[in-house]
Amino acid sequence: MVRINPPFHPWFRGKVQTALTEAWNSRNPLIQPISPARIVARLLEDHLGDRLSDHVFVDFCAGGGGPTPSVERYINEDLSLSLSPSSSRRLNGSSNGNGKAAREPVQFVLTDLHPHIENWSQAASRSPNLHFSPGPVDASDAPADLLTSRLETTLPPSVTRTKKPFRLYNLAFHHFDDPLARPILRNTIETSDGFAIFELQDRSVRGFLAPCLFGIGILLTAPAYAWRWRSPSTLFWCWIIPILPFVLVFDGWISALRTRTVDEVEVLMRTCGVGEKELERWELKSGSVPFIPLVASLNWIICTKRRE
Fold first, then answer.
1. What span, in angstroms and rounded, lies between the C-alpha atoms of 293 and 288?
2. Which of 34, 123, 151, 260 is disulfide-compatible with 264, CB 3.0–4.6 A?
3. Is this structure's pTM higher than 0.70?
């Protein structure tokens, strides 16, 4: 979620978050054959394999919703179709590990320190597997009863007693300075079975170019969105006084500067106060998957507990 100072008008904040959600979910057969949200779903499917249904995925810093509603839909659609090893679509063609069908839907939860209840309610109304916490949730001190008594719906005991929390940080972890990132990682390690960090930028020339192209895309598509939303103000603040493109491009540059490498995240884990013996139980993997060839990539870090 974009972290804009309080003086920034809520209308602008809402439009910026909507634009970021569109960035996660958009695709174009000519230049963008796959959306970042679809890549996230396939990465989770690939790296968790037959353990996918063992988790409840909790999106911390969910903002306006981001990719999570789409990721939930993709994963549960794939699970419903995975009746045989050959029927499952996977990134790079890998299978889920044991070829068994995972029939039980996976549950997803949206949380944030500043809940966006209206947006989340609309998203949750479209899926029985998407939930949210109407109260604020601090990623550095997540409540132990988050899944049992903090949600707008009641998860069945078969979920709360047997499923393990898996944290998602979608375009969010770079917002945390090191003094805050350490307690967040410590709380994550102490209360979760895994976590994933997904970013749409990095500290590279390409990482700075992508926000510029995003800004151009906002300018080109502004009339269509202004018409769809019945919002002439959107067109005004994109074309006449281009505040929206400027904020999105500038935020993208700052985000690129703050995005950590996997080595930097590993250093934070080793200095967050968790014992070395506990850290040895965790396995860290990372990579990058292009969603606009030669222009933009999804950078990911997935950390899970090793099987004993």
1. 12
2. 260
3. yes
Q: Where are the domains of the chain?
A: 30-206+259-305
Name beta bridge partners: 134.
Answer: none
Does residue 101 register a pLDDT over 60? Answer: no
Neighbouring CB atoms inside 10 A of 219's CB total 13
Tokens read off for 10: 């809520």
How far apart, in whole angstroms, are the C-alpha atoms of residue 171 and residue 240? 29
Which amino acid would we find at residue 287? G
DSSP category for residue 193: S
CATH 3.90.1150.10 fits 30-206+259-305, yes or no: no
Relative to beta strand 296-305, strand 107-110 is unpaired
Q: Is the pLDDT of residue 92 over 90?
A: no
Residues 187-206 pLDDT 10s: 999 999 999 999 999 999 99
What's the one-letter identity of residue 202?
A: D
Residues 275, 40 contacting (CB under 8 angstroms): no
